[in-house]
Specification:
alpha/beta; 4-stranded antiparallel β-sheet; binds adenosine-5'-diphosphate; binds magnesium ion
Length: 297
């Protein structure tokens, strides 16, 4: 698990993280979502012990995080942003090199296992520099898995990949998430929908939402948009007199009603009472993309 309590970090005058707290339980896959510059990489570098926080506290699986302290680092697999790799090394050579930093038994067997798990087998005889970006990400994920960490921290793992590679890497992450706690950062809402159960949204160094993906829309007090198509134009004033109606836009016999509640039943009753024929009626949910834009504008 990952426990973060009131972490603040400034670079000079730039506040990158402002009193950030969250908890990620064992086995969760959580998307750390925010626009560029929101503070995602900063948080991940703090959690992996690469940079120092100004104030606050973090724990990985019960071990307090301290900069350059290996106790917590052994519990974390980390794929940094831009996945820095030694392009001159062969895949196995590189994984063996990284394994040298960890107390790993049976290194060669472990490396073969990781090549299998990450789907690297068909390309594993090549130099890293000869691999496609998708396979390089697999090497990055394989090196993150070397210490068999409970927690995986992946910084923008699909940025820069082509659409097929994105799907493949997402599938790999979803599979790993069956056994591990995964925190992945992204600036793409669909990525969170595709992989994660929960989203923590960060903007300008502050958490602006933290909810299961399915409940995100409820976190915002959004209005309800109801689209009704009548057979013919009706008396708009009567529609407007329903409680909760905030606004009505009309186009022919189609009415887009903005309301503070879901008033579809009331609309049906009103229509029945006035002999208006409804051809269709739908409640338009605001998309997660809208929510993300709303929260981070
Ligand atoms: P994200 O990963 O969400 O794009 P970052 O954590 O990289 O965001 O950056 C958060 C903020 O901190 C940004 O405004 C960025 O410009 C600033 N920042 C990041 N790293 C440094 C640094 N080494 N020195 C100065 N400012 C930095
Ligand atoms: Mg970043």
């Amino acid at each position: 698990m990952i426990k973060v309590e009131s972490i603040t970090k400034t670079y000079g005058k730039q506040k990158a993280l402002d009193n950030v707290s969250f908890f990620i339980g064992r086995g969760e896959i959580v998307g750390f979502l925010g626009p560029n510059g929101a503070g995602k990489s900063t948080m991940m570098k703090i959690l992996t012990g690469y940079i120092q926080m100004d104030s606050g506290k973090a724990e990985i699986s019960g071990v307090e995080v301290k900069k350059d302290d290996i106790a917590s680092r052994f519990k974390i697999g980390y794929l940094p942003e831009n996945n820095p790799l030694y392009t001159d090394m062969y895949v196995r050579e590189y994984l063996r090199f990284v394994a040298g930093f960890y107390p790993v038994d049976h290194i060669n067997a472990r490396i073969e296992e990781l090549i299998e798990i990450t789907g690297l087998a068909p390309e594993s005889h090549k130099k890293i520099g000869a691999l496609s970006k998708g396979y390089r990400q697999r090497v990055g994920i394989a090196q993150a898995l070397i210490p068999d960490p409970e927690v995986l921290i992946l910084d923008e793992p699909t940025t820069g990949l082509d659409p097929n590679q994105i799907v493949e890497v997402r599938d790999l992450i979803k599979n790993l998430g069956k056994e591990k706690t995964v925190m992945l950062s992204t600036h793409i809402m669909q990525e969170v929908q595709a992989i994660c159960e929960r989203a923590i949204i960060i903007n300008k160094g502050k958490i602006v939402a933290d909810a299961p993906v399915s409940k995100l829309s409820q976190q915002l007090n959004k209005s309800f948009n109801i689209r009704v198509e009548f057979e013919v134009a009706i008396d708009e004033a009567k529609l407007g007199s329903l409680g909760s109606v905030l606004d009505i836009e009309t186009s022919g016999s189609v009415y887009n009603i903005k309301a503070s509640n879901d008033i579809r039943k009331e609309i049906s009753r009103l229509a029945a009472g006035n002999d208006w024929l409804i051809l269709s009626m739908s409640l338009e949910q605001s998309s997660l993309e809208d929510i993300f834009r709303e929260l981070t504008k």
